[in-house]
Specification:
The chain is an alpha/beta fold. The chain has a single domain (about 10-275), classed as 3-Layer(aba) Sandwich (Rossmann fold), CATH 3.40.50. It is about 50% helix and about 15% strand. The protein is built from ten helices and eleven strands. Helix 1 runs parallel beside helix 2, helix 1 packs across helix 8 and helix 4 packs parallel to helix 5 (about 155-175). The model has no long low-confidence stretch (mean pLDDT about 95). The protein binds NADP nicotinamide-adenine-dinucleotide phosphate. NADP nicotinamide-adenine-dinucleotide phosphate binds near residues 13, 142 and 190. NADP nicotinamide-adenine-dinucleotide phosphate binds near residues 12, 13, 38, 42 and 185.
Amino acid sequence: MTAPRTDVALITGTSSGMGMHAAVHLARRGLHVVATMRDPQRGERLRAAAAEAGFTLDIRALDVTDHAAAADLVAAIEAEHGGVDVLVNNAGRGNVATAEQLTMEQVRAQLEINYLAPVNLTKLVLPGMRQRRRGTILSVTSVGGAVGQPFAEAYCGAKFAVEGFMQSLAVVAERFGVRVGVIEPAAVASDFVANVDRAERGGPYEPLLAAYLARSSNSFATAQSAVDAGAAIADAVLADAFRFRWQTSERATAFVGLSLADIDGEGVLSATRQWISDGIV
Ligand SMILES: NC(=O)c1ccc[n+]([C@@H]2O[C@H](COP(=O)([O-])OP(=O)(O)OC[C@H]3O[C@@H](n4cnc5c(N)ncnc54)[C@H](OP(=O)(O)O)[C@@H]3O)[C@@H](O)[C@H]2O)c1
């Protein structure tokens, strides 16, 4: 009898932040982690964190907006390891600008990284997961995937889009044994703020933007650590009792509660799963 193979997790955007720590947490918990980043030379922090935890990681290049490269990577993992069992769509980038300040190129760029990339990777891993009748796809959205926030129109719009796509897919995928969910962090101390795409200062919105940025910097002063947010991602992925919607902290749960009555997603899914319950697969 052949031994069962080690579960393989593919995670995006692991050069920093919660993706980096989620990769370490998942490897520590026994998965073979394919940790991807645009430039593996920027993987020194991840390599150091993994070495400190006592293991090495399988680090590979992936710009998630390059859909052909994503297809090649998933095919390579399938050939080498027999499949992707866990996909964590983590790579993302913020944008601070109100509608009038945004160019359509910036809106498209937000959709490319925060929405189309997770959709593409999800489509790539689904056939294998469906055939094996097992798998987990977790997308890191944001509290901004449930609550619209000033000066975050393009970012929140893209994160809402991921939540809509994944919530629609969840009841279909589960019929083939594939678990689909989203996880919503609030403020997390990472490279996120430094990496945000920002509007130029000045103009009619300046007083409002200044007020928003002051509030935001207060909120980031007490941000959740990226280590803890990464652990929350790993916990969700490995949970026996999976749910559609997760948050990485109590603060995030309280915040999405402003918009959501269905904090864990079970209310919607228990209704929509009835719509396809007559189909036998
Ligand atoms: N920090 C927060 O407060 C917060 C709150 C809610 C949600 N989130 C979400 O959490 C996720 C992780 O963010 P974080 O806070 O850990 O921020 P981060 O430290 O900036 O990490 C984001 C990662 O995404 C990568 N990335 C950017 N563009 C990419 C691309 N085209 N292809 C592949 N990777 C790319 C970055 O790597 P390189 O630039 O090195 O390639 C980086 O490693 C994101 O989806 C973000 O929207 C963050």
